[in-house]
Structures are given as structure tokens and as C-alpha cells.
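User: Predict the structure for this protein chain, please.
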Amino acid sequence: MLKKIYLTTAVLLLAGLFISLMHTASVSYPSGRTGCTKKTTTAGCNCHSYGTTVNGAITGSDSVLAGSTVTFTLTITCTGGSGALGCDIAAKNGTLAVISGSGLKLLNGELTHSSAISYVSPKVINFSYTAPGSAGSDTLYATVDRGYSGAWNWAPNKGFKIYTVSGIVNNETPVSFYLNQNFPNPFNPVTKITYGIAKASNVKVSVYDMTGRQVASLVNEYQNAGNYFVNFDASKYSSGIYYYKIEAGDFKEVKKMSLIK
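Assistant: Here is the predicted structure, written as C-alpha cells:
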């Protein structure tokens, strides 16, 4: 009888110690957990209570070139609570990957903490995103939490466009050469330029700054008759007025556009 009492007492003490360590040492899933973002659930994290003392925000480009890989950032801030940090990051269509030193791991196609993240506010976590191969849009989701018995919270969804550099608008042959006004205009940082080639020609589409210096060559190739588009990504350029010019056979035209950041 005494042996049973001692054994039961020992089990209870060990269980209590384990629970205490889990509460004070890390988040409830110290090796990470996925499937808790708005991509897949409206319930959030079932081992924390919802709260506003921990917040997340995803930042990065508002447009990504199809098939390219870029870096996004999840920033976690806290105004209360205790314990370590955790997160779950998901993409609607693109592919996520770990950046060395981020403290994340890839699990079930999503990113989560590989171990409890030591508390610091703000906590900046970089991660890699590869866009699908075709034009469209995508969304990043994140859930952040703090402490085993603390709070979880959804970060606002991060939406952005997926664009291709150039392509054919349709297979119709225009009756004359033309250059349309870019759209959107003003823009930040990507805008689309559409133009028509009435007869197969060597085509150049270039961008110039206000001093007349060429800053980008968007098209420089032989093209068959048709309607085309090309995107201008001005991520590395400063705000201001720019000019874009088409040269196709004897046809030349220049239009103005505004970059506002």
C-alpha cells in the first residue's frame, strides 16, 4: 500500500514539475506548430487564449515577379504577458523557405519556430518566399503567440500581386502602332505598359528620368504584329517623373508617368 502511495506521489510530482517547466520555459509547442493561421482555420491556436498583448505584422513588397524569390519580414511586438515567442507563417499559393539564423523551420509547407524564441520586443524574423510562375496574386498569413498560458493573435494578412515582365495581351493585329498610358499611374512600385505593333518590327521600350538619362530597357527584340504589355518595376528608383519611349520601325512615341513612394 505504501509503495502505491509513494509511486502515485512521485508521478504527481513529476507531472507538476513538467507542467511548471512548460508554463515558464516556452510556448506550448516549443518545437513549433502549423495549421493555425487564417489560411486554414478561424479558430486560431487551441492551446492559448486570444489576446491583444502580442501582435504580428508581415512586411515586404506589394508586387513580386512571377517565379522569383524575395524576403518578407514578420515582426512580433508585445505589450504584456510573459514567456517565449512562437509563430506560424503560411502562404496561399507561393512557397516558403527558411533563412539561416531566423529560428524557423519548415513544417507541412508552413514556417514555425524550431524552438521557443527568446523574448525581445520587437522581434524581427525574416523568411523567404518564392512566387508562383504565372501572374496573379498571393497572400501571406501569420499567427503569433507568447508564453505557454499566454495569448495568441493573428497578424493582418499580407496581400500582393504576382506579375510577369512581358507578354501578349491578345492575338489580334492592331491597325496601327500605338503606346498606351501606363496603368496604374501614379504607381508604386510596378506599373504596366501596353503597346501595339501593326507590322513585325524591331521593338525597343525604354524608361528615362527627368534629365533624359535612360534608367531601364524593358524591351529590345524583334516582335511580330500584335498587342503586348511589359511591366516596369521601379523598386530601386526614387519617387519622381519618368518617361517611357517606344521605337518600332518608323514609329516613335513618348509618354510620362509618376512614381510615388
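The domain at 165-259 is CATH 2.60.40.2550 (Immunoglobulin-like).
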